[in-house]
Each structure stands twice: as C-alpha cells, then as structure tokens.
Amino acid sequence: MKTLYLVRHAKSSWTFDLTDHDRPLGKRGRKDIIKMGKYLQENHLSPERIISSTASRAFYTALFLCDHWGIDEDRISLTEDLFHAGTGEIIHTIKRAFECNTLAIFGHNPGFTDAANVLSNARIENIPTCGIVGISFEIDHWSEIARGRGRHLFFYYPKGI
User: Fold this and answer.
1) SS in 3 state form for the chain?
2) Tens digit of pLDDT for each residue in 20-43?
3) Do the bridges between strand 76-79 and strand 49-53 make them parallel or antiparallel, or are there none, so unpaired?
4) Chain-centroid distance, C-alpha 46
5) Which pLDDT score, from 0 to 100, does residue 29 have?
6) In 28-44, which positions are buried (b, 16+ CB within 10 angstroms) versus exposed (e)?
7) What number of CA atoms fall less than 13 Å from residue 153's CA on the CB side?
8) What are the CA-CA distances from residue 33 to residues 6, 43, 62, 117, 143 (Å)?
9) Is the pLDDT of residue 15 over 80?
10) Which of 39, 58, 91, 146 has a 20 to 30 Å separation from 30 between CA atoms?
C-alpha cells in the first residue's frame, strides 16, 4: 500500500519584479505553513520522501513543512516537471518516485486539484494554497499508479482546520 500527499504551495507574494517561478512566499503563506505543519505533526501525517516543483513558493513550502515533520531537506527532490504541471505530468512524476510507502509532492493548481480528482474518488473543487490531499493506493510500486486507482483519505487546508 502507498500513500500520496498532494500539497499545493502556500500563499505567495505578488512581487511583480520577479518571474512567476521566483515569487517568494507571502506573510500569510508563512503563517499558514506553521498552522498546517502543527496540524500535520499532531495527526502524525508525514511522508518518507518529497518531490517539489522548483518554483520558490513550492520549494519553501516543502522546506518549512519538513521542519514540522522532522525531515531533513536532503529528502526533497526538485523537478521542473511539476511547475504548472497537468495531470499527466504529475502522474508521470509520481511513477518515477523513489520507492517509499508515503510520498508528498508539492506544486501548483489547477493541476493538483485535477490530479486529486482523477487519481481518486475525490470531488474537490479547488485545493486552496497550503492545502493537502491524502490518497491511498493498493499498489506495491509507484510505477503502478493510475487514474481512478486511489482512495481519497483526507483534504485539509488552513481555513478548514
């Protein structure tokens, strides 16, 4: 059995002198990460491995949540493939993941909301910033992941906890 956490990056700053890829986390985003990090820690929800978009806001969301999970940053793999990825790219990234039982990937909408709904029986309209969706799969290897094979476990976001 495998468990996947799809994590949308925390709220970013709307600094217009930077490219979209380089926008940093905003003040609210940093506060939301602390709130979500404590909640995830209290509920013993932590991954073994992490894959993140290379975008600043996604990487720093992953990095700061690692602090709450007690995970070293060397367990974060970065990939440009998750920057504004669609469902196909997200599934392809997961299929190539390091073998572990629990994997978290950090990225962007609308791809992450679409992926949550396509991979599982979830009916999520929108994963808000710093939202996390848990999906379980009755598979032995990440390469076996496929559309509709997952079971929706949870959907947490800062304003909902």
Assistant:
1) CEEEEEEECCCECCCCCCCHHHCCECHHHHHHHHHHHHHHHHCCCCCCEEEEECCHHHHHHHHHHHHHHCCCHHHEEEEHHHCCCCHHHHHHHHHCCCCCCEEEEEECCCHHHHHHHHHCCCCCCCCCCCCEEEEEECCCCHHHCCCCCEEEEEEECHHHC
2) 898 889 999 999 999 999 999 899
3) parallel
4) 12
5) 94
6) ebbebbbebbebbeeee
7) 16
8) 15, 15, 9, 23, 30
9) no
10) 91
CA dist 129 and 158 (Å) reads 8
Instruction: Please say if the pLDDT value at position 121 is more than 90.
Output: no
| Lookup: tokens for 26 | 């905003």
Mean pLDDT estimate for the chain: 94
Of the candidates 96, 90, 92, the residue with the CA atom closest to the CA atom of residue 114: 90
Residue type, 128: P
